[in-house]
C-alpha cells in the first residue's frame, strides 16, 4: 500500500516536471525553436486549434521561423494569432508561407524572461510540495484506520521527503538551464 502511494507521488511529481519542461520550451531564448509557437492557439473555424495542427514549422536559420500552412486559407488566421500573442513578433506573409524573424533580445527583455522562468519554476516546486502534502495526508489516514503502523508511516514520510527533495532538485536544474539559455547573448 505504501509503495503504491509513493509511486503515485512520484508519478504526480514527474508530471509537474514534465509540465514545467513543456512550459519552459515556449519561453523565447536567443535561438529560434518551433516549440515557441507550436501550441499557439489559432482561431480555426471558431475553434482554438494548436498551430502545429495547421502548419509545418521549420527553422531555416538561427533567428528565423518559417510556417507553411497545410491550407493556404488559414494564413490570415495564423497571422492574427501571432500578432495577438505575447511574443512581440511581426509575421511576414508572402501568400504561401509566414516568416518570423526573431530580433536579438534586449538586456531588459532577457531579465523579464528570466523572471518568468523563475516564477514558472516556483510554481512547479509548489506543485511538487502539494503532492507531498496530499500523500502525507493519505498516509496519516492509513495510520488512523490502522492499515499501517506508526513506524511504517515514519519510514514512508522519510522516503516521501527524499523523493520530494530529488524532484525539486530536478525542477531547479530545469529552471537554471533555461535561465542560462535566456541570459546567453
Automatic annotation (TrEMBL):
Residues 139-173 form a coiled coil. It is found in: Cytoplasm. GO terms for cellular component: cytoplasm. The keyword Repressor does not apply. Keywords: Coiled coil, Cytoplasm, Protein biosynthesis. Pfam families: RRF. Residues 20-183 form the Ribosome recycling factor domain. The keyword Transport does not apply. Its main location: cytoplasm. SUPFAM superfamilies: Ribosome recycling factor, RRF (SSF55194). One of its GO terms (biological process) is translational termination. One of its GO terms (molecular function) is ribosomal large subunit binding. Belongs to the RRF family. NCBIfam families: frr. Responsible for the release of ribosomes from messenger RNA at the termination of protein biosynthesis. May increase the efficiency of translation by recycling ribosomes from one round of translation to another. This is Ribosome-recycling factor.
Amino acid at each position: 500500500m505504501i509503495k503504491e502511494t509513493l509511486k503515485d507521488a512520484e508519478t504526480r511529481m514527474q508530471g509537474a516536471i514534465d509540465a514545467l519542461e513543456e512550459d519552459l520550451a515556449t519561453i523565447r531564448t536567443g535561438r529560434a525553436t518551433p516549440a515557441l509557437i507550436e501550441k499557439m492557439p489559432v482561431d480555426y473555424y471558431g475553434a482554438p486549434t494548436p498551430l502545429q495542427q495547421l502548419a509545418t514549422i521549420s527553422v531555416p536559420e538561427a533567428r528565423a521561423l518559417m510556417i507553411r500552412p497545410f491550407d493556404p486559407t488559414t494564413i490570415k488566421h495564423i497571422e492574427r494569432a501571432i500578432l495577438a500573442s505575447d511574443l512581440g513578433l511581426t509575421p511576414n506573409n508572402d501568400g504561401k508561407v509566414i516568416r518570423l524573424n526573431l530580433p536579438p533580445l534586449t538586456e531588459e527583455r532577457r531579465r523579464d524572461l528570466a523572471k518568468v522562468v523563475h516564477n514558472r519554476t516556483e510554481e512547479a516546486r509548489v506543485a511538487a510540495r502539494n503532492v507531498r502534502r496530499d500523500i502525507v495526508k493519505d498516509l496519516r489516514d492509513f495510520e488512523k484506520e490502522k492499515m499501517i503502523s506508526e513506524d511504517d508511516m515514519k519510514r514512508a514520510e522519510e522516503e516521501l521527503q527524499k523523493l520530494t527533495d530529488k524532484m525539486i532538485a530536478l525542477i531547479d536544474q530545469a529552471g537554471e538551464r533555461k535561465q542560462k539559455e535566456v541570459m546567453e547573448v
